[in-house]
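task queued by scheduler; priority normal; single chain, no ligands, no partner chains; default sampling; output format set to structure tokens
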Amino acid sequence: MTDRTKIWIANTMKELMKQKPIDKIRVTDICRAAGIQRPTFYYHFKDKHDLIAWIFFQNAPQSDLLDPKAAAKAMQEMKKELSVFYQRAYADVSQNALWKYMLEYFTESYSRIAMEKLRTDTLTADIAFKIRMYCYGSLGMTMEWALNDNITPAETAVQMMFDTMPQTLREIFFSPSGADQ
């Protein structure tokens, strides 16, 4: 029942986002449109940004982050299936904007992969910085591509992002031994 309610609230939010920007949508609007009471909303989500992040995580690629084909497919789906959702979410510059949740998600995911490949519980400050910088840049370029680029194919955009990965990270992620560091 909980998942159905969350999905109902999420679908309502996506419909509202087709009509107006996030900063113009209030929790009261979501509750009214979903036919629920405010306590029901707050039982599931702490605020509308938490809801938007939940929608992202429900649709986040469940594939190999190091596979350009999987990443390109995810970007194509993002642009095709949820274009208005992502356009509105990426245009949001509030304190709790989706891109901040996404940055943490991808940084944590790449960090976890790096620690597994390096067989360690912690990363050096240098590697952690490079992962965060790479994620920040890739996320920024993904947002720019989603909002403004109707020419570059997803495969090309993804390959350009992979091509900019720092050499240290390439060695960790793509060498057979996971970089003998």
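post-processing summary
- Residues 1-59 form a domain with the Arc Repressor Mutant, subunit A fold (CATH 1.10.10.60).
- Residues 125-148 form the longest helix (24 residues).
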